[in-house]
Write a structure and sequence with these properties.
Length: 250
């Protein structure tokens, strides 16, 4: 409807102009809603243990799409104090040795990964444990710029709102240690028939060794690559200081 003039002489806005104004209002409020919603997500999980992660939902959905109706994700939360300290130490040694010092992003590791990949070698990531928690909990697999941007945003929120101990606790509970096997307790029960509190250094190192590709490698029946990497991880655990390293986390 074209614009007109009412009895008092005021200009009546046309329908297209009204729609444009509503659109601009939505565009104005949308970033604020996004910031508030994502901040609330992260704030709640500072105190509430996540019942599932985005990756778990994706894996369960993948199985159902393939017609595997009997597939069930294995996940059983354990507090950090109920998990052997060897496992958090192993994942730090394997994945993020600057975990205690960085604020979510390890720029040196990112630079090394870029240089490594530019030489045409096997693609290497530079993600920290904080980034991996952000991705596993809230996002999807892939390498799009949108996902990387969201990962960076969630990583910032996680580092601002959670202590390092909480970040590590959630990581060892939601990381995938085998196809559909998430977290320390599910992995310990599946592979060795024991609780996560009873994991030894060798078992913990083998779990950490499969993290780059948990559906390709096996912690229970490790091949040459996993064996070599697990040995290297154990050496790194000792060099970092073992339990003393964990004690310096806030």
């Amino acid at each position: 409807m074209p614009a007109g003039i009412d009895r008092q002489g005021a200009v009546i806005a046309s329908e297209p102009s009204k729609r444009r104004r509503r659109l601009w209002k939505w565009l104005f409020w949308l970033p604020l809603v996004f910031v508030l919603a994502t901040s609330l997500q992260v704030a709640v999980l500072r105190f509430v243990d996540p019942p599932f992660s985005a990756f778990m939902l994706a894996r369960q959905g993948e199985a159902w799409r393939q017609g595997d109706w009997g597939f069930r994700v294995a996940y059983d939360w354990r507090d950090l104090g109920d998990i052997s300290p060897y496992l958090p130490m192993a994942v730090i040694a394997a994945e993020d040795q600057n975990f205690a010092r960085h604020a979510g992003f390890d720029m040196k590791a990112i630079e090394k990964a870029i240089d490594h990949n530019a030489k045409g070698k096997r693609v290497r990531g530079g993600s920290t444990i904080s980034q991996q928690v952000a991705k596993n909990l809230f996002l999807w697999q892939g390498r799009s710029w949108l996902r990387k941007g969201l990962e960076a945003w969630y990583t910032l929120l996680i580092e601002l709102m959670w202590p390092k101990q909480r970040i590590l606790e959630i990581y060892v509970n939601v990381a995938e240690f085998g196809d559909g096997t998430y977290g320390a307790q599910a992995a310990a029960r599946r592979y060795w028939g024991k609780d996560a509190s009873a994991l030894g250094p060798a078992e913990s190192a083998r779990l950490a060794a499969v993290l780059p590709a948990p559906r390709r490698y096996s912690a229970k029946s490790p091949g040459p690559y996993v064996q070599r990497r697990a040995q290297w991880i154990q050496r790194q655990m000792r060099q970092l200081g073992g339990r003393e390293y964990l004690e310096q986390l806030d």
